[in-house]
Write a structure and sequence with these properties.
Layout: E1 8-10, E2 21-25, E3 28-34, E4 44-50, E5 53-59, E6 72-77, E7 86-89, E8 92-97, E9 109-111, H1 116-128, E10 145-147, E11 154-159, E12 171-174, E13 178-180, E14 197-199, E15 203-207, E16 219-223
Parallel strand pairs: 5-14, 8-9
Antiparallel strand pairs: 1-2, 2-3, 3-4, 4-5, 6-11, 6-13, 7-8, 7-12, 10-11, 14-15, 15-16
């Protein structure tokens, strides 16, 4: 390792745990790291840090970043439900009844209407917390997912937060009139600081603002052309 006092220049051993080149002092500077130094062409990462806060990075080779994607599931109501049947979404269970309880009201009851379409519409309103006092008694929207408009016998539930955590949302039913798929297809977004630049060898990707697992739309792509 070589060092120069004042503005510090370090050339450590180039291992994954130690930058190949550091220009700066303490927690401020420019740091260039090459991981897997035994590889023929190890990728380099350039980091700028000011007062301990990373300002952005540039990766010369890496995986293309991805947006966060919300998990989805499908609930089917056919044939029409009867009183006593129920659907659980996350922490809330919606129970179909012939008439809503009064004195006191019971949360998350849903009217089993005279036809399946009306019953499903009322369930959708209950999940979304849409006011419909003659159809359901849910006072708040579901805390894990929202319900899309009825499409035939189905409604698509979408996790409120993007990422793989949505794949684990509890979804189950009781009753012959109800069926559902499991939540699936949630994807974690690529985490990065705003200003990060990555190339996968084909495209250049720029993170415009700090991106978390649950974010989308913060990465932009530039196609690399031939000179």
């Amino acid at each position: 390792m070589s060092k120069q006092s004042g503005t510090e220049v370090q050339v450590p051993d180039g291992s994954a745990a130690s930058p190949s080149l550091a220009i700066g002092r303490f927690d401020t500077g420019l740091f260039i790291t090459r991981d897997n130094t035994n590889a023929a062409s190890p990728p380099a990462r350039v980091r700028t840090v000011v007062a301990g806060v990373e300002q952005g990075t540039v990766d010369t080779a890496g995986a293309a970043p991805v947006d966060g994607v919300a998990a989805t599931a499908v609930v089917t109501l056919n044939p029409n439900v009867a009183a006593g049947q129920s659907l659980t979404v996350g922490d809330q269970t919606y129970t179909f009844v012939a008439a809503l309880s009064a004195g006191p009201a019971v949360p998350y009851e849903v009217i089993a209407a005279g036809n399946k379409n009306a019953s499903l519409d009322s369930l959708i309103k209950a999940i979304n917390g849409t006011a419909a006092p003659l159809e359901h008694s849910a006072t708040i929207a579901n805390t894990k997912a929202s319900a899309g408009a009825r499409a035939g016998d189905d409604t698509t539930l979408t996790a409120l937060l993007k990422g793989t955590a949505g794949n684990s949302i509890v979804l189950s039913n009781v009753g012959a009139g109800l069926a559902n798929t499991a939540f699936a297809s949630g994807v974690n977004g690529t985490v990065a600081k705003g200003g990060t630049i990555v190339t996968d060898g084909t495209n250049l990707f720029i993170c415009l603002a700090d991106a978390a697992i649950t974010d989308s739309g913060k990465w932009k792509k530039i196609t690399i052309g031939v000179l």
